[in-house]
Design brief:
By secondary structure, the chain is mainly beta. It is 11% helix and 53% strand. It has one helix at residues 2-19; strands at residues 43-49, 52-58, 65-74, 77-89, 92-100, 114-122, 125-128, 131-136, 139-148, 151-162. A 10-stranded antiparallel barrel has the order 1-2-3-4-5-6-7-8-9-10. Strand 3 and strand 4 (77-89) form a beta hairpin. The radius of gyration is 17 Å and the shape is globular. Mean pLDDT is 89; it is low at 1-18.
Length: 164
């Protein structure tokens, strides 16, 4: 009897853990949403992720664009930063970002962006393909799908809202 109860509990826990990040296939249609519904991410967010410290800043949407920046440092040394742009594209929106080394050398080619297509948007939560952003009070959690050496994992970033 104990084994029977353990198996469903294990699968329930596993599905909750991995269902937090959703994905879209290349041919799947992105979800619908309005960038104005993301006002809850505006502000300065400080926290941890990737084994170091992180800061993310989001400005209010203007003309269908919500601009943000991210920086990551370890042991007091800047490792990389990002320029982010959530762009309204008809009935959907997309998160586009570029990574930069501390000397501002870009990771992506000039014309290319790392892109996250919208899957679904809810109250204080947005699922992009491979990235979930969720706000709970003055805390925000991002869950990001990363693949390294063929291994898929979820990296969690935990932020607290700070004053400007």
């Amino acid at each position: 009897m104990k084994i029977i109860l353990f198996i469903p509990a294990f699968f329930l826990f596993a599905s909750i853990s991995f269902s937090q990040v959703k994905t879209l296939g290349k041919e799947q249609t992105p979800g619908k949403g309005k960038i104005e519904d993301l006002g809850w991410i505006e502000g300065v967010w400080m926290g941890t992720g990737l084994g170091g410290e992180c800061e993310e800043v989001w400005m209010p949407a203007v003309d269908g664009h919500m601009i943000g920046t991210f920086r990551f440092w370890e042991n007091g040394k800047l490792v990389f930063s990002e320029f982010m742009n959530i762009v309204q594209e008809g009935e959907t929106f997309t998160l586009k970002l570029k990574h930069f080394n501390p000397d501002l050398a870009p990771w992506e080619e000039k014309e290319n962006w790392t892109t996250f297509r919208l899957v679904e948007v809810g109250e204080n939560i947005v699922w992009f393909s491979g990235l979930t952003m969720e706000r709970k009070g003055d805390e925000m959690i991002h869950q990001l799908t990363l693949t390294e050496n063929g291994e898929r994992r979820i990296e969690e970033f935990k932020y607290t809202k700070k004053p400007y």
